[in-house]
Amino acid sequence: MSNYILLTGCSSSIGKSVAKKLSEEGFNLILSGRREEELKSFSQSLNNSSTHKIWVCDFKTENIKESLESFIKNQEVIIESFIHIGGLFTLKPLRLFKKEDINDIFQVNVFSAIEISSLLSKKKYKSNLKNIIFFSSISSIRGKSGYSVYAAAKASLSGLTKNLAIELKPVKVVNLVLGAIMTEKTKSILNSNYEDINKHIPLGIGEPEEIGEFVSYLLQKSNWITGQDIIIDGGGSAL
Ligand SMILES: NC(=O)c1ccc[n+]([C@@H]2O[C@H](COP(=O)([O-])OP(=O)(O)OC[C@H]3O[C@@H](n4cnc5c(N)ncnc54)[C@H](OP(=O)(O)O)[C@@H]3O)[C@@H](O)[C@H]2O)c1
Fold it and tell me: Region 59-87: what's the mean pLDDT?
């Protein structure tokens, strides 16, 4: 059996960038998302492609714990780090949200994080687990119109982080709170008002590659960090 990093959201811009960086560093990866073909072709583009595995799971509709547990058993993998990049970003005024939309946003951003962490905290898996990294958003601490439900879901990851860092110690649990990063998902919003947004971020709008570098640092370098929200926003929230 070999050690693996479980990465959700591997078909996203940030997920791909983190996976690429970690594959270059020699890690074995479990790439997760809903689109199997996309994940397969992405996996083939990575270093050591034959070692990576693909776990296809729709967090809205499937039993996440059952699916992951049978994957772990069938594939004989040891999960050493869980990096939850998968997310559902829906922006609209609160009055337009239906109950199903709200459930979906919480299911993909938060409940999946809880279910996967819960499975990996079972005795037989926890002894191998070293890191949990969640992906949150600066909207969870800086208000913006249209972001309320997404921000509420992402804000829950902060509470989860602090409490799991205590409950699961010595597993390190951190929550990366991201500002504006140019991705497939955000490019239409960011490009529609590029100059204005960029000038309000001291280091400018971010790129996915910067996140891969930081995740690699967290996993590999000795650091005394757990239970924390780590803001990565180019200084936007300092203004
Ligand atoms: N970009 C930014 O500026 C920014 C800022 C703050 C926080 N973030 C957070 O950073 C993360 C990555 O963001 P991104 O902009 O690169 O990409 P994104 O397009 O928002 O990423 C979505 C990812 O989540 C997966 N996903 C969506 N619904 C799912 C479901 N029902 N079941 C399983 N997986 C599902 C998608 O996979 P499928 O291929 O299956 O759809 C995709 O890989 C997200 O958590 C996002 O909230 C991003």
Answer: 98
